[in-house]
Amino acid sequence: MNLQPTLANELVQIIPLKEADFDELFAIASDELLWEQHPEKDRYKKEVFLKLFQEAIQSGTAFKVIDVKTGNTIGSTRYYEYNEKEKSVAIGYTYIDRKYWATPYNRALKNLMINYAFQFVERIIFHVGDTNFRSQKAVEKLGAILSETFLNKETGKTHFTFSLTKENWK
């Protein structure tokens, strides 16, 4: 599985994340309300976001998300924890500009990534903070099922693991 393909559908395109994308993405991420339900609520701060962005670049699996209709950058996402033996991959670290919330764009993004991943894996994982109710509802709408509760060692915060199988994919 190529963990950083360029993919597109009628609404979004994902392309490999580059260092030069920082300013565009920080302009989106600097919106404090974007992170209000997230376990790491201070990601709107430049020094905190910079760490997240650098980790995304170093992962080699992160994307810039583009609105196909306007050409504008609307957020970022990535694949991670690919396990060839268990035939699973995680999708996460996703954030999109708030003006795209409650629109078909997030679903189009997930459709794009999930349909691609299911060509190679049997299970897709989503890790969601216990206070991130919007994301919990979003992954449940995809057909993902709560499969685990865990304590994130880095943040000390409670997270949930949701699993999506081909059979549950809506």
Automatic annotation (TrEMBL):
<protein>
    <recommendedName>
        <fullName>N-acetyltransferase domain-containing protein</fullName>
    </recommendedName>
</protein>
<feature type="domain" description="N-acetyltransferase">
    <location>
        <begin position="12"/>
        <end position="167"/>
    </location>
</feature>
<dbReference type="InterPro" id="IPR016181">
    <property type="entry name" value="Acyl_CoA_acyltransferase"/>
</dbReference>
<dbReference type="GO" id="GO:0016747">
    <property type="term" value="F:acyltransferase activity, transferring groups other than amino-acyl groups"/>
</dbReference>
<dbReference type="InterPro" id="IPR000182">
    <property type="entry name" value="GNAT_dom"/>
</dbReference>
<dbReference type="Pfam" id="PF13302">
    <property type="entry name" value="Acetyltransf_3"/>
</dbReference>
